[in-house]
Amino acid sequence: MSDVFWIHLTDICSSVGLFSSVIGNCTLLILLCGRSVSGIGSYRYLMITFCIFSLVFTLLEKFMRPLMHHYNNTIMVFQRKRFDFSNSFARILSASYCGCFAMCFVMFAVHFIYRYYVACRPDKLSYFRGRNYFYWIIGMFLVALSWVAFAYAFFQEDHETRIDEEFVLSTCYDLSLQDVGYVPYAFVSPKNDIW
User: Fold this and answer.
1) Averaged pLDDT score across all residues of the chain
2) What angle do CA 3, 87, 14 make, to 5 degrees?
3) CB contact at 8 A, 131 and 49
4) Which tens digit of pLDDT belongs to each residue from 7-61?
5) Please, what's the b/e burial string for 73-90 (b: 16 or more CB within 10 A of its CB; e: otherwise)?
6) By the 8 A CB rule, do 75 and 186 touch?
7) Hey, what's the torsion of the CAs at 124, 130, 131, 137, to 10 degrees?
8) How much helix, strand and coil, in percent to the nearest 5, is found in the chain?
9) Contact by Cβ (8 Å): 38, 26
10) Which residues pair with 180 in a beta bridge?
11) Which segments cross the bilayer (predicted)?
């Protein structure tokens, strides 16, 4: 099957995913905010944070319609434009998408810390109560913002990657550079390196 077919399939799946995410997360938010469930304590706020972040990430994904491609030792994230917006805005969107990936991992780490405290160190749950919980949120956002800043500052296009982008877009996806926004890239490794 061609890559163009997979683009169409990905677009359909992203619409289904957006619908599922909105329905599921909104339902969970209503239950978490509207119903008083005793015994879950600060876990409720952790789950509310997860729901809100999931909605934001899903909406960003649907808006950007990203394609990730590995070619010539470079990982590229193509952002298929829906509107004709500026390159600086496209660059901020792409960097934000990278930050969302970082935020996912950080949120899972915080979740595992919370679960560890519940199971093994219940006396430490005070670290997740009251004002302390906001420190966790601030810490998660700072890690994500550092990824956004790093992607924005260091993953810039140059002449060589521009040629690679044109080749990949035309041969694999039947797209042109006008169809995509800013493309952050990451250098992987020389061809003769073995991992």
Assistant:
1) 83
2) 40
3) no
4) 888 889 889 999 999 999 999 999 888 876 666 778 888 999 999 999 999 998 8
5) ebebbbbbbeeeeeeeeb
6) yes
7) 80
8) 70, 10, 20
9) no
10) 80
11) 12-37, 43-60, 89-113, 133-155
**Domain-wise residue ranges, the chain:** 3-187
Output the six-digit token pair for 109: 């780490």
Q: Are 74 and 164 in contact (CB under 8 A)?
A: yes
Of the CA atoms within 13 Å of residue 12, those in its CB half-sphere come to: 6
Residue 146 half-sphere exposure toward CB, CA atoms < 13 A: 8
Going by C-alpha positions, the residue among 49, 52, 61 that lies closest to residue 13 is 61
Residue 34: predicted pLDDT: 81
Q: How confident is the model at residue 184 (pLDDT cuts 50, 70, 90)?
A: low
- Using an 8 Å Cβ cutoff, are 95 and 184 in contact? yes
Name the strands in the sheet holding 185-187, side by side, starting at the edge strand that comes first in the sequence.
Answer: 66-71, 74-79, 185-187
What separation, in Å, do the N-terminal and C-terminal C-alpha atoms of the chain show?
29
Q: Which two tokens stand for residue 54?
A: 């999931």
**C-alpha span between 186 and 77 (Å, rounded):** 9
Token output for 92 = 């901020």
Q: Are 106 and 137 in contact (CB under 8 A)?
A: no
